Amino acid sequence: MDMLFTMLGGKGMSGLLKTGTAILTTLLVLPALLKLFIVTVDEGWAAIRTRNGKPIIRNRPQRRPSQHGGAVGEVVVLDPGSHGAFPLFYWYKLVDVRCRATDLPARELSGASGHQHRVHASFEWRPLPTGHDLRVFELDVVNVKERASNIVGAALRDVVRSLEGAELPHNDEINTRVIAASADEVRRACGVELVRVMVTGDALTDGYLLSTALREVDRGAQAVAALHALN
Known about the structure:
7 helices; single chain; four-stranded antiparallel β-sheet; three-stranded antiparallel β-sheet; alpha+beta
């Protein structure tokens, strides 16, 4: 009892308060303060560093060069992971780098033999988490989907134009040829990666099939001879 009363006395109570405060500070306060200084970028996201709304441009080489570090003159980008940050100002903008798909409008494309394909296609793309690509993606491109759709659509037209016969090849072949023809331009112009190109429909409507059949009849030898006779 004497020991208990001594602990609850002036000096004992002061020591308990100090000890308890130190324990609470270590267990609760310090982790909470540390959390304010740490920014975690999740998988599927990248963070472009900005200050006052303007991207931070790297002005000196990295001390420890890394694969995603970027060169001098590129935007400073935070890859997925945890990074220290000033607790009151979030000087970064998150960019979703997950894959997404965009549909191309249905179009009439002529093959090498003159057969017309009514092609419904789509392509998958994603932003690239590197300095120059993110700078193009964030600052230079007004509408990424519109510009990338134009580039991919033009490449698809050129690929179909070189095809023989009345049937389109397998999607894997079209995907390989269109990506080879347009991936570099899409990255340079839009700052995104072209992942896959897929033809989702070809000559699906009855009216289109009927018009195609009529055109095939018109190409017969007698019809061609009659047209030449008229000329």
